[in-house]
């Protein structure tokens, strides 16, 4: 059953169609000035909202994790409370920089003579506790569990000896530091200059009337502290492409090209291999795992997708090693449509469950597909993301762009989906019954500036990632209609706010936010 892509009619999987959204620019962090060169380490490689939507995390190729927190809710109370009071909410979601920390460092595997990049591949939020934030971050080989918490800054309130209390011959020569604030090796600080006793100072025979011991006190000032609680390492022979936390709050999975491992958050020394697609002879390898995701409500169910364009649903209750799937979702190839690029563009790069777990959204190179987990005969709807690039597949293959991995996301209400494209464009589609919503936005302060011509035919699928090595021309490619497409500027990563119509997306090192 085929849905709409661009302007075609769609078969709706959900409910009655709401009107199309009017998207507006909200904020940008790390905006580039004209002609500014982007450093490789600053390019954003992961985006994730937490469950409440009050915090946003980004990871970059330099191994850093940057946290943002929402400010408009704090200033006006919770949105739900204001709605109950019929309070007119005219403000759009606003975030501010909270903190950042170095999550991963570049490493070298001496046994395999392999460099391990510090690039953050995925970030996943965990359950917060006692005002502390918890999250998982991973690079190609190592997963880390982080705790971010505000702590009161501790200071030393008094020194060992107060010169004003000295008696007898206790004139104390001193040398004060040039700064009024002194920090000590134990992390404490004093707002007073430290007085150093001279070498010829002698304690009076009768002693001092008072001896002041150092007292460490907590001040009103707070600082954010990020601490790595656990490191989950040495469990993957191949590059980790995804991590996903379980709804039980205790476990999570990590997936590489051939295996999926199950971890307990509290235990970093061991994991359980639950999926292994590695053949006895590597020459027989026909497909690899590209992404894996836990069901949002059923802790025993997870899905993973492959480079062949299939999605497998597995039940952890069936066996310890889940090599046999409980359901298989794949779209059968149309006779006579096969080409050199068919298998390449069929590879699924990302999957996401809807909030209620009823649907799975998948992204391949050309399309978004929506699947009903109760119907494995085919997708309930297909959406063409950039069908106009189909005549350019040869150029995309030559410059390796055909292997780019685009992510996808669903709105919290399940009525819309979104994914990125080239020229820093991203598409938003309505997936409710009868919806014809199909919006093209550009990651800039004027998101409606660049509109793409509506494609006229349906498309197939793909998406896979490589580190892009440019062999062909990097100049923008044009078509007969005068449209140009810049394959060097691509919008791979984006996330939808869990409760509101707000999207965060990454264009190189810049984080753009939009609301409707």
TrEMBL record:
Residues 1-21 are annotated as: Disordered. Belongs to the phosphatase 2A regulatory subunit B family. It holds the Pfam family WD40. The B regulatory subunit may modulate substrate selectivity and catalytic activity, and may also direct the localization of the catalytic enzyme to a particular subcellular compartment. The keyword Magnesium does not apply. SUPFAM superfamilies: WD40 repeat-like. It comes from the Eukaryota. The keyword Repeat applies. This is Serine/threonine-protein phosphatase 2A 55 kDa regulatory subunit B. It comes from Platanthera guangdongensis. The gene is PP2AB2. Keywords: Repeat, WD repeat. PANTHER family: PROTEIN PHOSPHATASE PP2A REGULATORY SUBUNIT B.
